[in-house]
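Researcher: Here's my situation. A collaborator sent me these components and asked whether they could plausibly form a single complex. I don't have experimental data yet, so a predicted model of the whole assembly would be a useful starting point for our discussion.
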Amino acid sequence: MTGHDPEVAVLRLGHRPGRDNRMTTHVGLTARALGADRVIIAGNASDSKATIEDITDRFGGPFEVELTDGYRRVLRGWSGTVIHLTMYGLPIQNVEASIRADLESEPLLIVVGAGKVSFDVYERADYNVGVTNQPHSEVAGLAVFLDRLFEGRELDREWEGGTHRVVPKATGKQVEPIEES
Amino acid sequence: MTGHDPEVAVLRLGHRPGRDNRMTTHVGLTARALGADRVIIAGNASDSKATIEDITDRFGGPFEVELTDGYRRVLRGWSGTVIHLTMYGLPIQNVEASIRADLESEPLLIVVGAGKVSFDVYERADYNVGVTNQPHSEVAGLAVFLDRLFEGRELDREWEGGTHRVVPKATGKQVEPIEES
């Protein structure tokens, strides 16, 4: 996020083309909107990639989208902290302060699955984290995790390079073009 | 949520059978996991209802799922505060304290759409609220809204009547049956 230094990236596992397009798009858009710098999607998710990039072109960035066919290579090569969001993990409220401290000195990779996640991901993760130990949604888990990680600062970030912005309103919709400076 | 008095319900609009089944299920499961008391789904979402009820049977409640074919009636009849989550609304960080104060005395209905939401919802809402003014996900918006509404207390709630519970672990998965007392 603009204003923090080490990178925060999201790695989306288990994407099944067609069936998971919307969930994967929502993972990527949530990562962007709530302060991550990049999403890496494992699998053939070119539709989701295109949608997320369209939103970034329109409403600003910086935010990057990548596809990978080798997520284990991404995990192995990550020089920093790896978080795996899972309902089986340790409660977020018990580990978030420690994770925030790690982010002061090194980049953070947040792994979210679709269906079943391979056991090697649990083993590679520095923290397996549960946003509750209840089954709900990888999109919801990611959203709460990011909002707590950044302690709400992500809500005030500035966006660069977009063509349009929303003007917050009590009622109704207002979108205005951004003039070149 | 157990421990708060006035009810918090979520109203899911715009469900398209088939296409939206997973998103609607995730809205309902997120509502349940993060402290709402009930989800009301507008439209024919019997598959999502069954999935959410299965999870409640297994992992506990109380949590209710209802279908309605008349969401305007639900909105008109709501005796309490109506929140509409929308990227066009006022920043959550500016209105959350006021909404929390309202919840001390009256129930709260949180409206989340799928696609385009009819203008009468914007007009009926006491607060149109943006979890950022960026496009992302109704599931993410609902999750952050609930976590902020309850100020994290929802993460410590107790569940009643389930047959199983997850035991949080640093690595791996542990689910245990709950013995009858």
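Model: Some features of this prediction you could bring to your collaborator: The radius of gyration of chain B is 16 Å. Residues 38 and 64 of chain B are 5 Å apart (CA to CA).
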